[in-house]
Amino acid sequence: MSACVEISGVKIGGGHFQLIAGPCSVESKEQIIGIAERVKSSGASVLRGGAFKPRTSPYDFQGLRAEGIELLLEARRITGMPIVTEILSESHLPLFEHVDVIQVGARNMQNFELLTMLGRTDKPILLKRGLANTLAELLGSAEYILAGGNRNIILCERGVRTFETYTRNTLDLSAVPVLKELSDFPVVVDPSHALGISRLVGPMAMAAVAAGADGVMIEVHNDPANALCDGAQSLTPDEFDIVAERVRRIWSVLM
Known about the structure:
The chain is of the alpha/beta class and 255 residues long.
């Protein structure tokens, strides 16, 4: 059984399963609070949302940055849900002082200067596997955080790049039992980024639970067709409600 990481009163790992949900990017106060209230009512316990967005093109929406973090904190105040959001640079750390979980995205998995700085904090770190990185390399990155004294690490499988082009990436569910065998970190799965196709997110979220994941992280948007980022992989709140119920049923059987 994995170790337990506590996120502002919410436990993940060590026999505790959590749903993490929210939009790819924070777009407005009304958007993030509305989604937060809906996913909480469906059973999510942690709110995700991007304030800083690393995009392939410099002309794509880059996030609301500091304003986005403020809106996430407002959503937390209203709903009581702890928040997780991605950091891009160690220079942004002061802005993350009140964030509950700091996410290190796939592109920064081997940003060793950033990992070293995060090791000096006591905040939970959600560390995503890189697009073309092995599990050994993921665990090596986790060691950089551990070396600084921070043991509050959650690993995230979010798909790797393969020759398959139908989906955005290939979700490697074998990573879940392998990472649990090689470490005691909680492991969550992000089927949204792995697949890039909203209708496939539910089946793979359920498969992730069956594989032994300690949580799943799902993107939810109130208007996916007009989302500023990754609308194609986002569930509507109604769709998330169905997936959340199915995920909970599978978890209850396993427990």
